[in-house]
Amino acid sequence: MTLSFEDFPPGPFGSFGPRRVSREEIISFAAEYDPQPMHLDDEAAKHGMLGGLSGSGWHLCALMMRMLCDGFLLRTASLGSPGVNELRWLSPLRPDDELMLDVEVIQSRVSNSRPDTGIVTFGCRLRNAGGQILLEAVTPIIFKRRDSDAA
Amino acid sequence: MTLSFEDFPPGPFGSFGPRRVSREEIISFAAEYDPQPMHLDDEAAKHGMLGGLSGSGWHLCALMMRMLCDGFLLRTASLGSPGVNELRWLSPLRPDDELMLDVEVIQSRVSNSRPDTGIVTFGCRLRNAGGQILLEAVTPIIFKRRDSDAA
After folding, report:
1. Closest C-alpha to B87, from A69, A87, A90
2. Nearest alpha-carbon partner for B135 in B108, B103, B105, B107
3. Is residue B64 a contact partner of residue B55, using CB atoms and an 8 Å limit?
4. What's this model's pTM, rounded to 2 decimal places?
5. What digits encode the pLDDT tens for the residues A94-136?
6. How far apart are CA B144 and CA B78, in angstroms?
């Protein structure tokens, strides 16, 4: 079944994962997109503010997106997203972390400009096995409304 | 020379690029982190809202980060970032786009809690060769203050 706007009423939606992140993945993402020493090199990272190798914050965002896709987004009538309202990196991503993603629907409303669609604002939270929150994001996603299939 | 907090007064900072993005890169990022049909498959993308293959919004963010690193961030006393205040995906990333990144300093202030550091809030804008804005982001980055070297 394809999920539509109507399937996302405000409230807790679900938890997804775990997704284990290896040292190799952390270094490989950083080498391509965020080659700062604390994301690439154990020795340099030891002397940095985070006291050891940590993943790029953008790597965390990309992992969150993959977990959203596998969790439910690929089974929806999603029309994309205009952006992210707020994004906070709260604790560093470490090698071998096992990530869980908690998703809630903060707001859900029919679009004024395109009434065959609705905008669902999600609150997303990535945590590690120790319960530390690594990332919080508030992001709207646009979905088709179920009634719009006939249109 | 390593750039410190004092090197980022409010105002225009610089433009960086171009960075060309291939179809292969777009598909490879999407396969790993955002496997929605419009980012993976020309045929599926043709029937989608964006009318043709487009890159993941998170790929754009990762590319922005790399351009920030190469542009100036790797030559700074950066201590990382607490997050992103606002992120807007305005136009789709297309195969063979040549990206330019415009950076301005929106605000620059000494940290209250850690007076040896300062917080610089950047406005970042990614545009293609046709002048379309693809992404806008407002993001704070923490830097050491120059005077703090002696501490």
Report:
1. A87
2. B103
3. no
4. 0.95
5. 999 999 999 999 999 999 999 999 999 999 999 999 999 999 9
6. 7
**Domains, chain B:** 5-21+56-150 (3.10.129.10)
Q: And the tokens for A104?
A: 């809630």
Give the integer Cα–Cα distance in Å for A102 and A13: 8
Q: Which of B94, B16, B15, B108 is nearest to B59 (CA)?
A: B94
Tell me the nearest-neighbour CA distance from A137 into chain B, angstroms.
Answer: 9
Interaxial angle between packed helices A23-33 and A57-71, expressed in degrees from 0 to 180 and rounded to the nearest 10: 110
The tokens of B27 are what?
Answer: 């598909």
Distance CA A2, CA B40 (A): 19
Beginning with the edge strand found earlier in the chain, give each strand of the sheet holding B117-127 in spatial order.
Answer: A83-84, B86-89, B133-144, B117-127, B98-110, B11-20
- B-contacting residues in A 109-128 (Cβ below 8 Å): none
Q: Reduced to 3 DSSP states, what percent helix, strand and coil does chain A have, rounded to the nearest 5?
A: 30, 35, 35
- Count of A–B CB contacts within 8 Å? 86
Q: Residue window 75-94, chain B: list those with CB within 8 Å of chain A.
A: 78-89
